[in-house]
């Protein structure tokens, strides 16, 4: 006669706690921070000076000389005082003239040269490209004296034209960058345009330029930022004429005159930086696209 096994009473085990929605969000946030920790550290390192400039620009004269980083009161009138104490609008106009014409002249001269180096087969093409690369490695200080003498004999010193007119001869870096991008465009497009009866100029204007807009925008922004921040060129040619000062020279002069008023100096610095930052964020997508799509094809 068999007996049924005794059934032992079940002891309740430890309760399994399911993560709540807040806990899941916290875990995801910590995981995201851990994955992007290096990028976050770099972002803080780059943004810290901008935050310091912005906070100092809103302080009073007395607080700007102390070690406190947060303003007691927000003095937005510092920006208006910068305009009142300096011809900032004139400096902005001169800088816009230099940057705008310099960028337009650079595109007008560099795009056809880059197209010729990328598409045409002619004797000395590699030597011409090697000359372009050589110009990229040549410091401007090497030829500063003879070039200055040329513009002095032309009686153009004291103006910004010695900085603008050379852009009609092209820019080596822009030519190199545009050529590398144009090499990535399939030849079938240009050959089909020629079969349809387009000339080389019509092919450049109707086929190549629309496809090369990211690269053109990238080199245009590079040139615009270079002209906006250029200090050496305007100091060399336009420093003797106050009416032709750019923002770089004007900001240096403003800092020398208000060396103990750091709030005004930082306010002027922020006003100079703001247009460049705004332009970059508005054109960030096309700028990054133009840089990343530019290959290193030979």
Characterization of the model:
By secondary structure, this protein is an all-alpha fold. Helices cover 68% and strands 0% of the residues. It folds into 2 domains: 28-80, no CATH class; 87-292, MetI-like fold, CATH 1.10.3720. The protein has 16 helices and no strands. The termini are far apart. The model has no long low-confidence stretch (mean pLDDT 84).
In short:
With 298 residues, the chain is mostly helical. The protein contains 16 helices and no strands.
Spans where pLDDT lies below 50 across 5 or more residues: none
Q: What letter string, H or E per element, gives the SSE order?
A: HHHHHHHHHHHHHHHH
Structural class: mainly alpha
Instruction: Quote the beta fraction.
Output: under 5%
Oligomer: single chain
Q: Total number of helical segments?
A: 16
